[in-house]
Amino acid sequence: METTNNSHPALPWTPPSGQSAELQPVGRSWDVVRVALSLGIGKRTLDLLGPTTGAVIKNPVDRVLYWLIEPGAASGWDMSLLPCVEVWGATAYIEVPPASRTTGPGIHWHVPLRYDRCLTDPAALLTALRTATREALGPRTEARR
Predict the structure, then answer these.
(1) pTM exceeds cut of 0.90
(2) How far is it, in rounded angstroms, from Cα 23 to Cα 127?
(3) Which one of 10, 11, 105, 140 has the lowest number of neighbouring Cβ atoms within 10 Å?
(4) What DSSP state is assigned to residue 121?
């Protein structure tokens, strides 16, 4: 891994410079796990992950959080158990804020991007998402009559 001038490893990709968010392709350096803020699932997932979470982008207009994970890492996830979650890969683009934008208004880093906190561990994220979804929506086995 490359290092920066201050001896820290370089990020695996380059966020936008300047003040504006830019569309960036998903599926190259990371896939995106998109979680709706409705029902508290996104916030609860953040709470469950705590300091182990990677960087998280917040889009307050669409009311979603985006976790960045290794490309293809969610390919085996059972999404039927996660109705408020989407995984976006190589055919998607998202707006990515500059690393310095950590508050709104607009798209910003809800959990700031750092050289040691870029991607979230997909297994930990899946566990947190399942727990948060179960707490918000109840068990996802069959419909009640």
Answers:
(1) no
(2) 29
(3) 105
(4) P
